[in-house]
Amino acid sequence: MRRFTVRAHLPERLAALGPLSTNLRWSWHTATQDLFARIDPQLWADVRSDPVRMLGEIAPTRLDELAADADFLAALDRAAADLDDYLARPRWYQNQIGRNDGTGVDVGNGVAYFSMEFGVSEVLPNYSGGLGILAGDHLKASSDLGIPLIGVGLLYRAGYFRQSLTADGWQSEHYPPHDPQGMPLRLLTESGAEGRDVPVLIHVAMPGGRVLRARVWIAQVGRVPLLLLDSDIADNDTEMRQVTDRLYGGDQDHRIKQEILAGVGGVRAVRAYTRLHGLPDPDVFHMNEGHAGFLGVERIREWVTGADLDFDAALAAVRAGTVFTTHTPVPAGIDRFPADLVRHYFGGDNGQNESVLLPGLTVDRILGLGSEGDPAVFNMAHMGLRLGQRANGVSRLHGIVSRDMFRDLWPGFDADEVPIGSITNGVHAPTWAAPEWMELARRLVGPELVEEARGWERLQDLPAAELWRTRAALRGVLVDEVRRRVRASWIERGATAAELGWTDEVFDPDVLTIGFARRVPTYKRLTLMLRDPDRLRALLLDEQRPLQLVVAGKSHPADDGGKALIQQIVRFADEHEVRHRIVFLPDYDMSMARYLYWGCDVWLNNPLRPLEACGTSGMKSALNGGLNLSIRDGWWDEMYDGENGWAIPTADGVVDEHRRDDLEASAMYELLERAVLPRFYDRDDSGLPVHWVEMVRHTLEKLGPKVLASRMVRDYAVRYYTPAAASAARIREDDFAGARALAEFRRRVDSGWPGVAVTRVDGTGLPDTPEIGDRLTLRAQVRLGDLAVSDVEVQAVIGRVSEHDELVDVVAVPMTHVAVSPADPGAGAGEIFTADTELPVSGPVGYTVRVLPRHELLTGPAELGRVTAAAN
Ligand SMILES: *Cc1c(COP(=O)(O)O)cnc(C)c1O
Prior knowledge:
- Helix 8 crosses helix 28, helix 10 packs across helix 11 (294-306) and helix 13 packs across helix 14 (363-369).
- It is built from 28 helices and 30 strands.
- By secondary structure, it is of the alpha/beta class.
- It folds into 4 domains: 12-88, no CATH class; 92-164 and 173-422, Glycogen Phosphorylase B (Rossmann fold, 3-Layer(aba) Sandwich); 462-707, 3-Layer(aba) Sandwich (Rossmann fold), CATH 3.40.50; 756-869, Immunoglobulin-like, CATH 2.60.40.
- The strands form 7 sheets. Strands 1, 2, 5, 8, 9, 10, 11, 12, 15 and 16 form a 10-stranded mixed β-sheet that branches. The chain has a 6-stranded parallel β-sheet with strand order 19-18-17-20-21-22, with helices on both faces. Strands 23-24-28-27 form a 4-stranded antiparallel β-sheet, with no helix packed on it.
- A hairpin with a 2-residue loop joins strand 9 (210-221) and strand 10.
- The structure holds pyridoxal-5'-phosphate (PLP).
- Pyridoxal-5'-phosphate binds next to helix 8, helix 23 and helix 24.
- One of its GO terms (biological process) is carbohydrate metabolic process.
- Belongs to the glycogen phosphorylase family.
- Residues 10-124 form the DUF3417 domain.
- Its cofactor is pyridoxal 5'-phosphate.
- Keywords: Allosteric enzyme, Carbohydrate metabolism, Glycosyltransferase, Pyridoxal phosphate, Transferase.
């Protein structure tokens, strides 16, 4: 059956409901939600708070009533005016741009942000987990900050899947199809024949002369447009129609087609959008993970065919404006394709033939961008790093792990010199903090609360009793939601209403509530809590100080191991004795997650360190005053401060996984027994857990401003987008003179580098027993072959000598070119460089001299991955 949705015709006076329902800003604006609820509270609940559905189902007579209801009209006008103001008023970015005090940002012609998934709202279920939610929060925070940004991705007909449980606790998957007409989307159109608007169609050439076509939907996320490509149209053959059927479904061939559409088609969609809206082309292209990496190849093609650049110059130009963010610390988590598959799609006759996917580019150059050790494999993360002049991981620890993981791309450099930085993820407070908290905080702090992350210290003024009342109220809301969902799940599992009376008694609004909800890959260790079932049972059933546990999460449909873990939890939670204290709620998604973050007192996270790149659910809990109980992994490694929760000790060095699980589970139980539970149940005369509430206050005040998506996006704007936009503008000047020069330089370095050598190093000037701060004079003789002195930076590298005979804690001191040495029969002629420097460290000290490429358009001397050090 083909379904479709008919949108209601709104009376003229209610026309403003249209934009209020389709601009997804309503999803983080409580006043707009209240307005829709007011139309018909029962219907609002029935359509699960979906304004577009609501307007589709509301009776016309009710609309006529509202059009004559003065109170409603006043509220409508207020909401409409508020949205207009939000869209038009200068925001943080508009106030920063052009400032010269070091805080200035300028993203030039804007940013195009590519991601395979976007979790903006449950009414647009186009995500599977953390990566997508992060992308959604990135768009919302960019909108709040006023950063000119366009999101780009795919619209999946069935999104990810909906999860339910079988009677024996096995996960089953459903893929209800979505109708774009019933979602807050509009088509990108242009005027066609006879002035009629027709949908813009993006074309991507496929092997054998076929064409993959896609229309472009626009979701409006506040000020930010999100372009979503959709191949499910009649112009495509069946195979091409299915390209955007599901997120992360299908085989490698299916997946590469999706990634080609997202990357190559995505750039074409951006071009169509900016052309039709009279906007400039974005300067910065941000790849949120490597999936959309083909965007860089398409941009190379644009300049090769449109600006008459060769591949290398176009690559230099693309790199200048490209930012790549990596999200996985596990090599197995990286997207890889068989090289032959890439050849299949990007090959063909490689001439100027229009029917080839990227005319003008040879497939060997494309393969080179994704090469790794194994020539049969194409690595999307490597391509991301080769296409982006700037790259980052998503927490401080993940930055360290990433520099180590990708260091082979920068041979000869220490891991800490690998040019991959980090920006710690954040979460969008107006989406994830309960309205109660937002209201309290806005009253206390004011509008600078979120965008500027200022004023949070004023939470000191909040009475402890009020803090606690809010926490307790939100726990109560969660308890109701748990009961509703447990009952619904049992009905789906085949129970009848008559045997479900007990579900009204599930959970207790006064009991310490712990949440654990996330996808179910092995490293997240869903079942660690079951390591010692009797110990867990005792905690759940303790008469004086019990705890209750709510668990949720989806396993990838192809991962039976993950489904078995879910089944273990479900079977335990089904036990008669404990079923009122532990629940597994099926179908974890944004709408459920919200209740968990609001209501849980403690958020549990026990990944295998360091495999959690960042993690964001704990941040959402913290924004609601939840205390984290977590392994020090991802964000928690840098933000745990001793007072904002608890760190589960890790058994990092223990190789035997079972033993490691035992040790870490035992540490977790112990923390619960000795620290968490006693503190929660330690009450003063008025029943207030004074110490607990102070931890809640401390968490909100100190952690709150650090975990905000606005902080994250400001970091990107200042540290990545602004320099990338400047590089991109500069490299294009004078008909791409910089791009041509940098490409030429790179070719010279590539061919000339084998001729570079440090032939001699002398150190003089130190006393017999040197002390820290004494001066050392270094003189090095360097052979440069075909390269010029201006092509290189020569550095003296001084540091402590470790037990492994390596230099650590090093300082690199640039050396000055002084002369050409007289021909020396031993070493050959060479350039002489000197430096005069202080001894920076004590203990065993060593030094060496190294040569690196230097060019004003590089971000630093490590960028090209070339270095030659003195031989000894
Ligand atoms: C925040 C969130 C995630 C990601 O949580 P992690 O801690 O990163 O695992 C996944 N799913 C939903 C619905 C979320 O809200």
